[in-house]
Amino acid sequence: MTDKKRIIFKLIPAVLILAVAVICFTLAGPSDVAETANAAAGEINGHKSVTENENYTLYVNDETLSLIIEDKKTGATMESSISYDDGESNKTWYGAMNSAIVLTMINGNDDSKQANTFNDLVTKKVKHTRYGFTADIYWTKYKIGMTLEVELTNEGLTVRVPDESIREDGKDYQIGTIALYPYMGNSYMDTKEGYILIPDGNGALIYLDDKEGRYKSGYSAMIYGNDIGFEDNKVESLLWDKYRIINRSEQIIAPVFGIAHTDDKIAYLGIVEDGAMRATIEGMPNGVSVNYNRAYAKFTERKYYTQPTSNNSTTGSLKISESERSHSDLQVRYIFLSGDDATYAGMANAYRDYLIAKGDLKQTDNGFRTRVDFLGTDREQWVIGTSAVVMTTVDDIRDIYEDLRKRGVNDLFSVYKGWQKGGIYNVPIAKYKADPKIGGTGELTKLAKEAAESGTGFYLYDDALRINPDEYNVTFNVVKRINKRKYEENTHKEVYPVFNYITPKRSVTELTGLVNKMASKDVKGLCVAGITSNIFSYTYSGTNYTRYQCGEAYAELIKSADEKLDLVMEQPAAYLWGSSQAFLDMPLYTSSYIIEDAFVPFLSIVLKGVMPVYSEYINFEANKKEFFLKLVESGAYPSFYITKESSSELIYTNSNDVYSSQYSAYADQIEDYAKQLKTLNDKVKNATIKAHDIFGDAVRVTYSNGVKIYVNYGESETMVDNVKLEPMTYLVM
Fold it and tell me: What is the 3-state secondary structure (H, E, C) of 61-126?
């Protein structure tokens, strides 16, 4: 070969490479090529790679502290700041959209002042670590500082502000709220396909489509419910001051939120790990103030409260802020998901795995049972005092059990309400002493042991939160709000119009006494309510107590009771799940806010196959056919509230909202539901829900053992996976 031929031969590969590069540049466009080149060099959109692991790469802009997380398997990314400026946002909103931390501050009676890490003059000392970075941040004008810690994990990210790092050096400004990376996973208008997951009820989705400016506000709710220490006891809507005609909003049971970009197949589940007891979840679709979709946790450090200046609060009051801020570390964990797992079902599965790994959720007996609860006694007004209204005695329960067994309903679960001396509203309960009207303590003990021997779950009900001021002295040991006014829960009923809350310390005394007495009688089943779904700030003997202290006291109390008895709980908050053998009164719907585009059984997916979940009472559901399909879809077990006597006997009691409960009217329905749902649940056994997909009015639920359940809520026939579904029916494949 001549030298000339050798040169030509060597040039051919170089020419080919150049040609391929030109073609790629032409097809991809300049921006894609630039981003690809930057990513190869360890940089995306001004963010430099600071750490990576097998799954993700973390990019950080040291100036703004904004983040980009890249899925190494797919190349998909999510950003904590906006990548596109539509030019329509004012300076304040633009700063928030590009900030790592956004504060609201209290200045006198003003809590509208915002500070962020983009607009304001801040000093930052950024230190890169093996897994991420720390940044000491100080707002020089406001004399406020804190340390931000960001770490990349195998599952995603943790973002943390240690409590000890928070500084308030000035006198003019104090911290009201702190939001960490409020635009994590944001998207502009409808440029992304997907949704925001909000923890309303069982779960809801807000789609990332163009909302066309229809909504002026988004979703904002306090984790574990409102704080009665600050909030007034409001009535949503009453008819003639007696009957509620608008349902209360569902409260947040688990401290989670999420965003999924389904077109890019990337999603995250946000879990508020520290600071949850005084945080809100915010889910904002585009058009709410700005044209960007976002979701985040906002931590409350201080709040205002209204201090009356006289016994008549309507004549004058002062607006006062808390003198001491909350003390808790603040941490959000982001679990990122990709591919087919980048869905709300994937988020639910990730949350289940997270809870089990932490020991906050344990595998319990998950066999199917039909829940048949009973009301023992209540009270109505009499000439002097009150008179007992007996609805279901111990012998009545025996008879009902016997009839159900004859019908083939053998797998039963029951909570007995109103068993205590004085009836259902004689609270708190400190002694194991049954009302003689239902048969007395001896007969109740005998029934509990008979139930245990037959395999029936039998639990005595205890509201460990409330106290009846008509039956007990409420001078001491009752909750006062932060303004030192006694908290009153208005029932709008005639016999007992008001209840108070007892302090956590007294709940410990009363519940511990009951637990010890039951354990000594070998009565093992206890259903705890009240403290399982309420935490609050309060004042007692001149000392203010926070929601953190309240929640910690309840958690310790429940843990102690769990060591002696078999506990189930009424709508327990997520931090108590590890001590419960069942979840009672799971909401199968949401609050039906106008911003919600779809209801999804997020919590049911988390718990199905691990802990038995029981629905709210079927008696009081208007559309029982749809509710039955909700049971099929969610895997929840049915619940009935039953009495031997007619519910008309309750018309002059506080239980007058139990308008339909007589066993004779529900026996056939209990039998039908039990047989159908047991057959269904025998097919899935202890399998978990792997996927949940929506097809218009139909859904498909896929279990880990391969079983698929199709439900059609529509009024017309539809096809899913070549499976024909008749209106308002379900099929198991």
Answer: CCCCCCEEEEECCCCCEEECCCCCCCCCCCHHHHHHHCCCEEEEEEECCEEEEEEECCCCCEEEEE
CA distances from 263 to 77, 96, 157 (A): 12, 26, 22
Distance of CA 350 to the CA centre of its chain: 15
Cβ contacts of 237 within 8 Å, gap of 6 or more: 244, 245, 246
Amino acid at position 710, single letter: Y
Contacts of 4 (CB under 8 A, 6+ apart): none
State the average pLDDT over residues 418-428: 97
CA distance 673 to 678: 8
* Residue percentage of the chain with pLDDT more than 90: 87
* Residues sharing a CB contact under 8 Å with residue 399, sequence separation 6 or more, in sequence order: 644
pLDDT at 313: 52
What whole-number distance in Å separates Cα of residue 132 and Cα of residue 294? 23
**Residue 639: closest CA among 423, 402, 417, 395:** 417
Q: What is the CA radius of gyration of the chain?
A: 29
The answer to whether the CB of 78 falls within 8 A of the CB of 68 is: yes
Average pLDDT over residues 672-691: 96
Backbone angles phi, psi at 675, to 5 degrees: -70, -45
Give the number of other CB atoms < 10 A from CB of residue 215.
17
CA distances from 486 to 225, 469, 504 (A): 19, 12, 15
Instruction: Return d(Cα 668, Cα 648) in angstroms, integer.
Output: 20
- Of residues 161 and 26, which shows the higher confidence score? 161
Please name which of 337, 283, 356, 255 lies closest in space to residue 602, comparing C-alpha atoms: 255
Q: Smallest Cα–Cα separation from 318: which of 304, 329, 308?
A: 308
Element (H, E) at 506: helix 504-520
Mean pLDDT of 633-640: 98
Residue 574: how many other CB atoms lie within 10 Å: 22
Strand partners, 692: 701
Strands 194-198 and 204-207: antiparallel
Residue 126 in tokens:
């950024």
Residue 144: Cβ-neighbour burial (10 angstroms; 0-12, 13-18, 19+): buried
Write out the two tokens for 311.
């016994």
- In the block, tokens 């992304």 appear at 192
